[in-house]
Amino acid sequence: SSKRLSRVRFSDVQSDDGSTETETDIDTAKNLQAEITKRDAEIENMRLDLARLRSTLHEEELEKAAVLKRLEVLDLIQRLEKFKGEERQEQDLMTELKSQNTDLKRDSKVKDAQEKRSKM
Q1: pLDDT tens, 58-75?
Q2: pTM
Q3: What is the domain partition of the chain in residue ranges?
Q4: Which residues does residue 20 pair with via DSSP β-bridges, in sequence order?
Q5: Biggest alpha carbon–alpha carbon distance for the chain
Q6: Rounded distance, CA 113 to CA 100, Å?
Q7: Buried-state track 12-25, b at ≥16 Cβ within 10 A, e below 16
Q8: Dihedral in degrees, nearest 10, Cα atoms 68, 69, 74, 80
Q9: Ramachandran sector of residue 10 (left: φ over 0; alpha: ψ -120 to 50; beta: rest)
Q10: Measured on CA atoms in the order 96, 102, 103, 108, is the torsion positive or negative?
């Protein structure tokens, strides 16, 4: 944004160094204009830096969200594996109970047979 200074005096008063007041005012105006241009460039660089920082922050937020989703998925996988493990244990217990039941029935039949033999 180019800003111009509107008040520049144009009077040709000779100063001690031989320059006129008009020349001094124009030099001052040029120096001020250069300073303004320099500051405008610094401000624009700061705006660009801010935009880069915002972009980086947004990327980091997206990465953080992705990491949180991965953690949720890992937790679900662990819970599923635990559940499957519990299901296997339950199946093993059922198998063991069936086996014991079969053994009890067999033992009962053997006992009944022994009792029948002893009664005979």
Answers
A1: 999 999 999 999 999 999
A2: 0.45
A3: 1-120
A4: 14
A5: 152
A6: 19
A7: eeeeeeeeeeeeeb
A8: 130
A9: beta
A10: positive
Tokens of 23: 């020349």
What is the pLDDT of the chain when averaged over all its residues?
A: 86
Residues 6+ apart with CB under 8 A from 22: 9, 10, 11, 12
Question: CA dist 17 to 10, 29, 74, 78, 114, Å?
Answer: 18, 19, 81, 87, 139
What 3 state SS string does the chain have? CCCCCCCCCCCCCECCCCCEHHHHHHHHHHHHHHHHHHHHHHHHHHHHHHHHHHHHHHHHHHHHHHHHHHHHHHHHHHHHHHHHHHHHHHHHHHHHHHHHHHHHHHHHHHHHHHHHHHHC
